[in-house]
Specification:
The complex is a heterodimer of chains A (499) and B (111).
Chain A: H1 33-36, H2 49-63, H3 65-73, H4 85-90, H5 97-112, H6 114-118, H7 130-139, H8 148-152, H9 159-172, H10 178-189, H11 198-216, E1 231-234, H12 245-259, E2 263-265, H13 282-298, E3 303-306, H14 310-324, E4 338-339, H15 340-349, E5 365-367, H16 371-376, H17 385-397, H18 428-434, H19 436-449, E6 453-456, H20 459-468, E7 479-481, H21 482-489
Parallel strand pairs in A: 1-2, 1-3, 3-4, 5-6, 6-7
Helix pairs in contact in A: 2-3, 2-9, 5-7, 5-9, 12-21, 13-14, 15-17, 17-21
Chain B: E1 3-6, E2 9-12, H1 27-36, H2 43-59, H3 65-76, H4 83-89, H5 94-101
Antiparallel strand pairs in B: 1-2
Helix pairs in contact in B: 2-3
Classes of the chains: A mainly alpha (499), B mainly alpha (111).
């Protein structure tokens, strides 16, 4: 196993002194022809890439007024500077959100403002040249689009939108990231990010049914492609592959079983994730999301429930209707879409489920809010439901629950360090450093309150923490899904159906 | 494209050293890949590699980790059928490190 440089943990999250270029060396693997062409991108960097890139920026400024506003209105107040986990972990000045955005603002000034066109040196405008592109490739892949900086921006500038725009421009000139483009190709070819073919998925689900039967004595089903089911369950494909993700999948299955609600997973739609958002491509986002809408129609379901996947929930909650709506073929009595936490919580309130808290007595639990759920969506019918509903479920499933430092939770939550399309091995040094603020806050409650379980609702966070926490000497079993706790606590067979 | 030389042959890999052509795999190649990963291959290591290859042959994907742990538990004894044991064998993770030595492609996605 490679050696990663792990930052030293402090008692508290501290703003480091600025350093220059500490992360300059860390670049994503370039996308290759076979993953670029199917997505409609050039096979390699186009000859006139400078001109094409500037044109693309011009097009986007016309299309997305928000982008132009974000590029125009920053007053460099610095409120965002120390809010990024990557800056806090790497000390690299270009990882301060204002400085990262400046990499595009300086190009924007050069070609789209009178002062920049006439006196580029005076307004510190930059040519879109090799040096600039190099910085874009590096630092726009050191942003996880978590939007924590935006919470603190007095103007509400969404730096994630700037990162997305930069990646869209780079894809347009044939400079893509292998990780995201390869995965998007797999979604189109096979139906999910992991590339699990239908026979393997079927075998996996049958295996899990056997596993649950063995441990609980109950015939809990994990049905695939069953037409006429009430609910289409759309989970991230990691739920069919990795630990601890699988534990949450079994939790959802037990909830459906106990409530007596017929559901199905779709082999074509066995992926909630939508990496189209990470690369800033509306067309890809729309195409990936369309599979779900199509499958819901084909399988004649009445509801769609989305599993524990952070950015998937943002895409579903905030964008599905625009991308592929209207969803008027679904049952209007239920939210479209419905988060699995919302679904389970509703059943719990209606008395359909019994949870035995003692089943989780070995745990002192805390909750890590995942960025896309926390800052880019809601849940339920009350403001803040995206924070309260998962917590209500955790509290219903265990006796011991504590919060981390409030400056690191709810809308001020810190990214796990692996979101937004950077969950790839070549960026491990970034991922390790970016986890520093969250790990610091976790260590505080581990010490003070003996916390030994951090519950969350995102597949990326689960994968990231499972890999990163051991490097900070925290066992990987410390992280798991909210439905893992539900799965442990749910009483099967005591009663069945909605009351 | 990255590659490595072994016994006079050139083997193409991806940037992280995973074989591009699955048919290039042999026990010698596995031993070489294990060295690059600082993994000393024991009988238990080979059981994991062999199971991964058999599963991949049938399903064209690596197995879910739980399927792997159960299979290893059956072969090597119940006390070894758990994730911890697999991580003891392959500290870089059974999904990624063991797949690499078994000549399987790197799993992609939120893993």
């Amino acid at each position: 196993m490679a050696d990663y440089s792990v930052p030293e943990l402090q008692e508290d999250i501290k703003t480091p002194a600025l350093a220059v270029g500490t992360m300059e060396h860390l670049k994503p693997y370039p996308a290759i022809e076979k993953h670029m062409v199917p997505l409609g991108f050039p096979d390699k960097r186009v000859d006139n890439w400078q001109q094409k890139g500037i044109e693309k920026l011009g097009d986007m400024l016309k299309k997305y007024r928000s982008l132009q506003v974000y590029l125009d209105i920053c007053v460099k107040c610095g409120a965002c500077a120390d809010k990024c986990h990557y800056y806090l972990g790497t000390k690299d000045a270009n990882n301060m959100p204002v400085q990262r955005a400046e990499l595009m603002r300086s190009v924007y000034r050069r070609y789209f403002t009178p002062a920049g066109k006439l006196f580029p040196g005076v307004v510190r405008a930059a040519d879109f040249d090799e040096e600039t592109l190099n910085k874009w490739i590096t630092y726009y892949h050191q942003c996880s689009q978590c939007r924590r900086c935006s919470v603190f921006c007095p103007y509400g500038i969404d730096t994630a939108e700037i990162t997305m725009a930069a990646r869209e421009i780079m894809d347009a000139i044939g400079v893509g990231h292998k990780y995201s483009t390869e995965i998007i190709c797999k979604v189109h070819d096979v139906g999910n990010n992991l590339g699990i073919p239908k026979p393997a998925l079927k075998g996996t689900l049958e295996f899990l049914e056997g596993d649950i039967l063995e441990t609980t004595g109950h015939e809990v089903r994990l049905p695939l492609d069953e037409e006429g089911a009430e609910v289409l369950l759309v989970a991230p494909s990691a739920d069919f592959f990795s630990e601890p993700h699988i534990q949450s999948l079994m939790g959802y299955a037990k909830v459906f079983h106990q409530a007596g609600i017929r559901y199905t997973i779709s082999s074509i739609g066995a992926e909630a994730a939508n990496f189209g958002m990470f690369i800033g491509s509306f067309a890809q986002k729309q195409k990936i999301a369309k599979r779900i809408a199509d499958q819901a129609r084909e399988l004649k379901v009445k509801r769609i429930v989305v599993g524990e996947c952070g950015h998937a929930w943002r895409v579903a909650y905030s964008f599905w209707n625009t991308l592929n709506g209207p969803f008027d073929f679904l049952d209007p009595r239920y939210p479209v879409p419905q988060h699995v936490c919302e679904f389970t919580y509703d059943l719990l309130k209606r008395g359909a489920l019994t949870l035995d808290k003692e089943a989780n007595d070995q745990y002192v639990v805390t909750m890590h809010d995942s960025c896309n759920v926390a800052r880019a969506s809601r849940m339920g019918d009350q403001p803040g439901g995206q924070f309260e509903i998962p917590r209500a479920l955790i509290r219903a499933a265990c006796h011991h629950y504590v919060e981390m430092d409030p400056d690191t939770t709810h809308e001020k939550t810190f990214c796990c360090g692996g979101g937004g399309g950077v969950l790839t091995d070549e960026l491990m040094d970034l991922r390790v450093a970016g986890a520093l603020p969250r790990v610091t806050a976790l260590k505080q409650v581990m010490k003070k309150d003996k916390v030994n379980f951090m519950a969350l609702i995102c597949a990326i966070c689960k994968a990231q923490f499972t890999k990163i926490l051991p490097l900070y000497h925290i066992p990987m079993e410390t992280v798991g899904g909210v439905h893992q706790l539900v799965s442990n606590a749910i009483q099967l067979g005591a009663k069945k159906g909605i009351v | 494209m990255p590659s490595f030389e072994l016994n006079g042959h050139t083997y193409e890999t991806d940037e992280d050293g995973y074989l591009i052509n699955l048919s290039d795999w042999s026990e010698d190649v596995a031993k070489h890949l294990a060295v690059t990963e600082s993994v000393e291959m024991s009988e238990a290591h080979w059981e994991v590699v062999n199971f991964l290859r058999e599963y991949y042959e049938e399903y064209k994907i690596a197995p879910m980790i739980r399927i792997l742990t159960k299979a290893i538990g059956k072969k090597l004894g119940k006390e070894k059928g758990n994730t911890k044991y697999l991580y003891d064998l392959y500290p870089g993770g059974p999904a990624k490190q063991a797949c690499k030595i078994a000549g399987l492609p790197k799993p992609t996605g939120c893993v």
